């Protein structure tokens, strides 16, 4: 663990069931970093996880809070999914203006594995998770813009001794 945490923005990109929350929790302790997960906050507040208006407002507020934390020297993990390159670019460029390194962790798994994980997650009824059906995931796959190798090169690598 770092003796003196340094500001760093960590973006977790992937479809439901890809392992974003698992990795985020591990990184939050290892970095150390503040982890911001809209699904968990919405569930804790009793908000429907599919309420897109609330999700958009919450993610905008999280981004404002993230910038404040980065200015104070705190590392932050954003667990938004970042399905669109434009979302990833916005956060990367915003952090760069602050002089902060930015990591992008793209998590992926084969479609059938994602379905298996989501079925298992739904069966256990974990807090802060919404049931995602195979049909829903099929639609999500069509919307998801996976980062290219070219895009991945725009981000900083994790510090030595810590790999995502």
Strand count, sense and closure of the main sheet? 4 strands, parallel
What is the typical, i.e. mean, pLDDT? 91
Q: In angstroms, what separates the terminal alpha carbons?
A: 14 Å
| Proper CATH architecture | 3-Layer(aba) Sandwich
> Radius of gyration over alpha carbons?
16 Å
The low-confidence runs, each spanning 5 or more residues with pLDDT under 50, are none
Based on DSSP secondary structure assignment, what is the total number of beta strands? 4
Order of helices and strands: EHEHHEHEHHH
Total domain count: 1
Keywords: ATP-binding, Nucleotide-binding
InterPro entries: P-loop_NTPase (IPR027417)
GO molecular function: ATP binding
Protein name: ATP-binding protein
Q: Could you walk me through the main structural features you see in this protein, from its secondary elements to its overall organization?
A:
There is one protein chain. With 164 residues, this protein is α/β, with parallel strands linked by helices. The chain has one domain (9-152): P-loop containing nucleotide triphosphate hydrolases (Rossmann fold, 3-Layer(aba) Sandwich), CATH 3.40.50. The chain is built from 7 helices and 4 strands, in the order βαβααβαβααα. Strands 2-3-1-4 form a 4-stranded parallel beta sheet, with helices on both faces. The longest helix is centred in the middle third of the chain and has 20 residues, at 52-71. The radius of gyration is 16 Å and the shape is globular. GO terms for molecular function: ATP binding. This is ATP-binding protein. It holds the Pfam family AAA_33.
């Amino acid at each position: 663990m770092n003796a003196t945490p340094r500001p760093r923005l960590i973006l977790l990109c992937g479809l439901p069931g890809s392992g974003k929350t698992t990795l985020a929790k591990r990184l939050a302790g290892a970095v150390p970093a503040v982890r911001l997960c809209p699904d968990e906050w919405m569930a804790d507040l009793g908000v429907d996880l599919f309420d897109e208006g609330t999700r958009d407002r919450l993610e905008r507020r999280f981004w404002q809070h993230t910038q404040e934390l980065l200015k104070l020297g705190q590392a932050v993990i954003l667990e938004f999914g970042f399905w669109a390159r434009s979302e990833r670019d916005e956060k990367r460029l915003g952090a760069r203006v602050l002089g902060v390194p930015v990591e992008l962790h793209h998590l992926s798994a084969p479609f059938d594995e994602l379905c298996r994980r989501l079925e298992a997650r739904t069966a256990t009824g974990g807090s802060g998770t919404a049931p995602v059906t195979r049909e829903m995931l099929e639609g999500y796959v069509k919307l998801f813009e996976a980062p290219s190798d070219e895009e991945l090169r725009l981000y900083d690598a994790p510090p030595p001794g810590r790999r995502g």
